[in-house]
Structure of Flagellar hook-associated protein 1:
Amino acid sequence: MSNNLLNIAMSGINSANTAMSTIGNNISSSKVDGYKRQTAIMSANNGLKTADGYLGTGAHISKIQREYDSLIDKQYNKSLSNLGMSEVFFQQSQQISKLFAESDSDINSQLNQFFKSIATLSGNAGDQTSRLQVLNDGEDLVNRFKFMDNQLTEEERNSNERVTDYADQVSTLASQIAKLNHDIFNAKSANSIEPFDMLNQREIFIHDLSRLVEVKNEEVDGFINLSLSNGMDLVYQDKNIDLVAFNSNSDSSKVIVGVKNDLGVVKELTLAALGSGKIVGELKYRNQVIDSANNQLNQTALIFAESMNQVHKKGFDLNNAAGIDMFTYGQPEIIANSKNSREDHFTVTFDTSKIGDVQASEYTITRKGSDWEINRLSDNTQIHPHILASGNFEFDGLVVTPPTRPLSQEGDSYQLITVQNAIPDLKLNIISPDKIAAKANRNNGADNAQNLNEIFNLQQEHRINGKKSFAESLISLSTSVGDKANKASSDYTNKLAITKSLFAKQESISGVNLDEEYLELNTILQYYQANAKVLATANQLFDILINNLK
């Protein structure tokens, strides 16, 4: 009896030692990122069969359990992807919103100053000082447009670099997860024991990956297989594919994302295929904020410049010569997709008589059977152009001359860059103050300002698509960017709250609560002390037995 009691006591003491070591490890690892709480599971030993029935033989630690809920972890990963997308869109939009809030007033102020100098000259059209002021203010306005355009172009380059960096991070993490899959599988195969530290590290990598791109995960035979939203494997067992950033085939100024297979072939991924995450947030920010703002800014500058030209050319300068273009600006262009099977040559020009119809958008022209399909990208609308007698396409203030004998095959496409060249090539075309065409008739005197008055009236006219004045268009642009930033802020706040809630749920299961661990440690200590008393009793009984045998 004393021998069985001794074994029972020792089993309790050994179990207590293991349990206290587990608790101690929880406490010491509580500040380790990604650590999952461990629990020593205590089970009864097999009973000893006696004539009186089964007699208990103590307890043992059946396993060390890692506290983890895969369902909540999947939900948490999904929330991290949504948060990553929202965070990037919010942070970048805020920066651009601040830029426009500061610079929009500068452009509008300079626009007002330009028209003010026109009004001043109207009062004394022959005054050389006033004429020079018009040119100076016109030059300053051009410079303000160029400054904003350069800022947006630079931000697009920065955005491209961030997309490239995110893609590299995804590839690195996918490779690390695949290696851990290999190491975890080998460790479990060797001794059937889960390597908790490796599992924790793998989950940290998956969390980091989820912030960058949305992934679905499935555990099979100890491997965590990760796939993108379109079902394409990113990590399968101990293998992974690389996410790569590369210049778009349709527009080399834009970096897009794809996957590279074992043969080195890169396949482009759509936003839907990527789902969410920082990469998607960056791409959406570039498309919906940067490109949209850049197009609208260039549209405003273009229509302003051509409207000025049209009225200015109706007048006459101090030398009685007909007015010339007051401004020059960049022209539209059509770029072939680098993957086209054959390349055709298009030409495109602005229909200056309908310059106010020009949209702040790019277009795609795609070969469909024996026809061409034109789509406006800003609102994803198919365009049905007016076909001129020459065979040219006329739409949205543009005239496109298609190839007479097309070589392009089905699906070959072209990108129509409408307004993005306007500001880069925007210049004041008048150097001499004498060239300002102030008067409406060659026979009028130098003080006649009838044509200048018509130029001044352009300030109030709704020249932008027949809906907005130049100033209203600039204000609308700034407001639109600000609204997008505000909406992004609200969305980010909501996504952050969801992520924090899921993190709290995860921590309630897997996290280490020091107060609870202290209580459990005290409980196990009492358990240990109780078993020590049983051990002491067993030793006393054994001593009594030995003494009685003497």
Observations:
- The longest strand covers residues 59-66.
- The chain has a mean pLDDT of 92.
- The longest helix spans residues 128-191.
